[in-house]
Amino acid sequence: MAYDYEKAFALRDDPFKPKQLLAGLTNPPLQDSLEIRPLLLNSDSALELLYSRHAGRFKHYEEVFQDYARGEGYRDDTDPTRVGANSALVSLYGYEGTGKTTLAQAMIRWLRKCEPPAGLGQWYIEDSWSSRFFASAEEQIVELGKLQDKVSKANNRYNCVVVDNLLPGSLNRAVQMYNEIRVERVIFLFLVSKEPELFKELSGEGKTIITPRFNMVPLAADGAVAFVRHRINKFRLTNDPYKGIPWLAVDSLFPFDEADILKAFASGVFLDDQPYISLRQFNRTIAGMLSARLKALDKEFDISKCPEPDKGKYVIRLMDGFEGLMKVA
């Protein structure tokens, strides 16, 4: 059984479930179980390495949000940077695992670049709900009251607050909190929910005016390819003995293959009786495939000694790999 990602795949670690501590990461638990948890980008800049803006609508939505904020006076492209005076109620909604929390974190990280003038303090960030789950709306409503007290006691002029895992029945209380806080201080309140019952209201069709709003969609084939390419490129080894192998160029997806990924999506193999596949599902699945292939290789296997005509033997075919995982499960 092999255990060395370097020798087996010319990768310094598992790109989809890194085992070694990311360079510069100061809070190791933030890296734990990232194949099933969101990237809390605002909490540690080292996690930026894993963020793929092209794996869906991330880049586009970041730009939409930034354009909106700049229109409201928040500028990161001036010297000094500037802030506006208006608050904003922002919604991010979509099925579980589509990147809602990660996108909210990216937006907050950008807002922090727009520094308030001297004397007004720094942005206060409250995003602890991204790691909290609630059994009922009643419980969540009680906690919203505590959250409002916490933000008020911080007494910062500029605030970013994430109401993550929002449940049906809690929206009105969250909006109430927003309206009460904004009387005394600026607040960007991010409403994040995976509950289809809330999608209509969070999309702006309800009685509450929410601007801007972002619908996080399931993963498509091109986004899956972009995600794999990003992660492989970030972890690819380019030093000896791997830099002299033409087919292990930096833009290679090996041990995966672009055409194979597209074929797998076209076949619907990943759906597994589900109506969609999320980025989180895809990441977890291919991480399992990579781990299974590593364990199946001989301990002494070295990809740097593999001639190009033989490389196809070691490509992970997603349909075969997925079916293998299901048999094991």
In total, how many beta strands? 5
Question: Any guess at the CATH architecture of the largest domain?
Answer: 3-Layer(aba) Sandwich
How many independent structural domains? 2
The CATH topology annotation of the largest domain reads as: Rossmann fold
Helix content: 25-40%
Principal-axes shape call = elongated
Between the first and last Cα atoms, what is the distance in angstroms? 20 Å
Mean pLDDT: 91
CATH class category of the largest domain: Alpha Beta
Number of helices: 10
How would the blueprint of this fold be written?
Blueprint: H1 5-9, H2 58-71, E1 88-94, H3 100-111, E2 124-126, H4 137-154, E3 158-163, H5 171-181, E4 186-193, H6 196-205, E5 213-216, H7 221-235, H8 258-267, H9 279-296, H10 318-328
Parallel strand pairs: 1-4, 1-5, 2-3, 3-4
Helix pairs in contact: 2-3, 4-5, 7-8, 9-10
Write a structural description:
- The protein is of the alpha/beta class and 329 residues long.
- The chain has 2 domains: 5-20 and 220-328, no CATH class; 57-216, Rossmann fold (3-Layer(aba) Sandwich), CATH 3.40.50.
- Helix content is 38%, strand content 9%.
- It is built from 10 helices and 5 strands.
- It has helices spanning 5-9, 58-71, 100-111, 137-154, 171-181, 196-205, 221-235, 258-267, 279-296, 318-328; strands spanning 88-94, 124-126, 158-163, 186-193, 213-216.
- α2 (58-71) packs parallel to α3 (100-111) and α7 packs antiparallel against α8 (258-267).
- The chain is elongated.
